[in-house]
Amino acid sequence: MAVGFRILSRKRVVAGEWVARARALPVANISDVMSRMASGGATLRPMHAAGGMAGPALTVKTRPGDNLMVHKALDMAVAGDVIVVDAGGDLSNAIFGEMMLSQAARRGVAGIVIHGAIRDAGAIRANPLPVFAAGVTHRGPYKDGPGEINGPIAIGGMVIQSGDLVLGDDDGVLAVAIDDCRAVIEAAEAKQAAEAKQMAAIEAGTLDRSWVDASLRRLGCEMPEV
Fold first, then answer.
1. Three-state DSSP class for 149?
2. How does pLDDT run across 195-217, given as a tens digit for each residue?
3. pLDDT for 39
4. Checking DSSP bridges between strand 5-7 and strand 147-149, what pairing results, if any?
5. What is the mean pLDDT of residues 160-186?
6. How confident is the model at residue 1 (pLDDT cuts 50, 70, 90)?
7. Helices (H) and strands (E) in the chain, counts
8. What whole-number distance in Å separates Cα of residue 51 and Cα of residue 30?
């Protein structure tokens, strides 16, 4: 068994229903209903033109600065996949660039997440295919391995199994375990509906803000009586 240098089979994939429903929701709302305990870290920022991302994870773990396994993942990806790469967060060498972006688009990939650096930032910024990364460098990668595909990875403490739901928007990247998708998406949809009512009340000038002072008093804040 070549632990650390192997390609595994993806056993399960999140159902398309949850991908489609999650795509219509802000990542922040999904994060909130997960008790704000999951995050890919604030370093993962959108590098593309605009737009959100949702799809099943095709996971890659690679040695920092090496993208051999990322190239293999591009060849394995099916339409709708999100390729999620744990490259250790190292920014010394770019793991992904313009030519790989073109290949990803040709494969119908729904998004790319690089816990590491990209290059050809201008081309990626002009393209609508979602790309999230931790930084930019002109220095290219090595192609020697090792690495793993379809194994568990962790980014910023967030564990991602291959096939899990991966989401991204302007606020960052989030993963939802396959078995949690129904509960999480339904709760996030309810939160979104409640927030729509709040926004309507704000616009109408009828939003009840008494909770602010009530919270301050409960917490023992000294404040003048109004």
1. strand
2. 999 999 999 999 999 999 999 99
3. 86
4. parallel
5. 98
6. low
7. 7, 12
8. 17
What six digits make up the tokens of 151?
Answer: 């194994």
Cα→Cα distances 185→17, 95, 140, Å:
10, 32, 39
End-to-end CA distance of the chain: 71
Place of tokens 């959108």: 46
Strand partners, 6: 148
SS3 category, 73: helix
**98 with 106: CB under 8 angstroms?**
no
| pTM, rounded to two decimals | 0.94
pLDDT of residue 140: 97
Amino acid code (one letter) for 89: G
Helix, strand, coil distribution of the chain in percent, nearest 5: 35, 25, 40
Identify the burial level of 149 via C-beta atoms within 10 angstroms of its C-beta, where 0-12 means exposed, 13-18 middle and 19 or more buried: buried
